Amino acid sequence: MAKRIQTTFEQRMEAVQWYEENGRSYKDTAAHFGYNYAQVRIGSKKYESSENVF
Q1: What is the number of alpha carbons within 13 Å of residue 19 lying toward its C-beta?
Q2: Fewer C-beta within 10 Å: the chain N or C terminus?
Q3: CB atoms near residue 35 (< 10 Å)
Q4: In 3D, which of 43, 46, 50 has the Cα closest to residue 8?
Q5: Of 25, 6, 7, 14, whose CA–CA distance to 47 is shortest?
Q6: One digit per residue, pLDDT tens: the chain, 54 residues?
Q7: Where would I find the H helices in 1-54?
Q8: pTM (global) more than 0.85
């Protein structure tokens, strides 16, 4: 099992903003920030629906 990464709200927002500005690729965003693909996907979906991210 992979080690869980603790992130702040600001870090999650930075990842979502990067995702939006750089081609909307979950894979690229996850690799750039060292996050799990699913974390990025869930975070971006929550952001799109105006909920808290991650």
Answers
A1: 26
A2: N
A3: 19
A4: 43
A5: 14
A6: 567 778 888 998 999 999 999 999 999 999 999 998 998 998 888 888 875 555
A7: 9-21, 26-33, 37-48
A8: no
